[in-house]
TrEMBL record:
Gene3D superfamilies: 3.30.390.30, FAD/NAD(P)-binding domain (3.50.50.60). It comes from Methylobacterium trifolii. Pfam families: Pyr_redox_2 (PF07992), Pyr_redox_dim (PF02852). Keywords: FAD, Flavoprotein. SUPFAM superfamilies: FAD/NAD(P)-binding domain (SSF51905), FAD/NAD-linked reductases, dimerisation (C-terminal) domain (SSF55424). InterPro entries: FAD/NAD-bd_sf, FAD/NAD-binding_dom, FAD/NAD-linked_Rdtase_dimer_sf, Pyr_nucl-diS_OxRdtase_dimer. The keyword Flavoprotein applies. Residues 352-454 form the Pyridine nucleotide-disulphide oxidoreductase dimerisation domain. This is Dihydrolipoyl dehydrogenase.
Length: 472
């Protein structure tokens, strides 16, 4: 058995793991990065980038079909499925190659390849013949797609985000299970590329939205392009010819069936924690198999172990994984040297969905029912100037603030939301109130004016409340 010793061992060479190794090394620790495969990061290989490439192709097809709105006549739009997917994979592979190039640039004594497993709180094995002793370790093992129980008997007939981008051609029809960010992005893109898409979800909302008006708007907008089955349970699945037959029960309780060329499971990505020996590492595990850990320092209860990125299931998005990796790496180096760890405040929550229109959730979540002293600002894109110019006037904005006007959070569904959501996140992070944010300069005509409308709505309501209090 080959014996190695490090200050810090980082398990997993995805976004969080690479960031953790870099941070630990920069802090002066002797660190090793253990790649368990297949590598390339979830974002570049099967997540952010390939899904956006598919969405970009779908958007071009949709824009061509809708060009008549502007008096531009397009004779016809045809989709070359193999070409669409060929470009997707070529660009995807380019992004992945960049990640691998960074890995290859690491000194050989800072990287290992193989399956890692804890033997005790200070030792793990890598592969069959390597034992690594460490003073602190970072678990950054990422996540894998979940397959709902009714589909498991179908084996590799079930597509996941790990396999759907390997299709040689677009299917004639596709059932998508899951209306969250990944499911709705792929479903809409496929529909715009000529695939007959049916989307199923046990819930009533799409794209991670929860504010009732926006939930209703999303169902209406996406339902115009997709065959939507919300509040629907999949009861069974079977192989039929080259395709799949699904059976389900809708909100009315009636059973139904349908045949599809392919089915995509997009119902989440649980952490890759099974089989790595967390209990042997001395960690306190919950019923879900996740270790108890401090959300700020990322230090696990029970051992000198930290957990970052998708592996802790807290905020499974790239910018959070990168930040968490940095925190975990620095803290691992501190633990290895008996130093002081850091516990920074979490970033303002920021989640986006790159559909058309886009969706975003920022800051504190929506609260149903009585909202106490919360004040909600509203804006509708249907008559917003720039949105109407571009022919994308769908959706709206909802922003909530406390009784003093301090911004807390919001949800958005509309054009340019990826930019508007960042502005709101920065304002929340900086502790701004609605009036102060509304007084920032905004150029005309831009979509940012729509954000200003919602902010001014809050400021107007607060001013009205204060005037009422003064009169009384």
């Amino acid at each position: 058995m080959h014996e190695l010793s490090y200050d810090v061992a980082v398990i997993g060479a995805g976004t969080a793991g690479i960031s953790a190794h870099r941070a630990a090394t920069a802090a002066g620790a002797r660190s090793v990065l253990i790649e368990q495969g297949p590598g390339g990061t979830t974002c570049a290989r099967v997540g952010c980038m390939p899904s956006k490439l598919l969405a970009a192709a779908g958007a071009r097809a949709h824009d061509a079909r809708q060009a008549g709105l502007f008096g531009v006549r397009v004779a016809g739009v045809s989709i070359d499925g193999p070409a669409v997917l060929g470009r997707l994979r070529a660009e995807r592979d380019r992004f992945v190659a960049g990640v691998f190039a960074g890995m290859d640039a690491l000194p050989e004594d800072q990287r290992l390849a193989g399956r890692a497993r804890f033997l005790d709180p200070g030792t793990l094995t890598v592969g069959e013949d390597t034992r690594v002793r460490f003073r602190a370790a970072v678990v950054a093992t990422g996540s894998s797609p979940a397959v709902p129980k009714p589909l498991r008997a179908l084996g590799d007939r079930v597509l996941t985000t790990d396999t759907v981008f390997e299709l040689p051609d677009l299917p004639a029809s596709l059932a998508v299970l899951g209306g969250g960010p990944v499911g709705i992005e792929i479903a809409q893109a496929m529909a715009r590329l000529g695939v007959a898409v049916s989307l199923f979800d046990v819930g009533a909302s799409l794209a991670g939205l929860s504010e009732p008006d926006l939930v209703e708007a999303a169902a209406r907008i996406f339902g115009a392009e997709l065959d939507l089955h919300l509040q629907t349970e999949i009861a069974g699945a079977q192989a039929v010819g080259d395709g799949v037959r699904l059976s389900w029960t809708g909100p009315d309780g009636r059973p139904a069936t349908g045949d599809f060329s392919a089915v995509l499971a997009a119902t989440g990505r649980p952490p890759n924690l099974e089989g790595i020996g967390l209990a042997q590492a001395g960690l306190t595990l919950g019923e879900d198999g996740l270790p108890a850990f401090d959300a700020r320092s990322l230090v696990c209860a029970g051992g000198p172990i930290l957990i970052a990125g998708d592996a802790n299931a807290a905020r499974p998005v790239l910018h959070e994984a990168s930040r968490q990796g940095g925190i975990a790496g620095r803290n691992a180096a501190a633990l290895a040297a008996s130093g002081r760890i850091e516990a920074p405040e979490p970033w303002t929550r920021l989640a986006m969905v790159f559909t058309h229109p886009q969706a975003a959730v920022v800051g504190a979540p929506y609260e149903a029912g009585p909202s106490g002293d919360r004040i909600v600002g509203r804006m509708d894109f249907s008559d917003q100037g720039r949105a109407r110019v571009e022919g994308v006037n769908h959706g709206g904005i909802r922003i909530w603030a406390d009784g003093a006007g301090r911004l807390l959070g919001g949800e958005m569904l509309g054009p340019g939301v990826e930019h508007l959501a960042h502005l709101l996140a920065y304002a929340i992070q900086d502790g701004l109130d609605a009036q102060a944010m509304a007084e920032r300069p905004v150029y005309h005509p831009t979509l940012e004016e729509g954000l200003g409308t919602a902010l001014s709505h809050i400021a107007h309501r607060i001013d009205k409340m204060r005037r009422g209090s003064m009169r009384s």
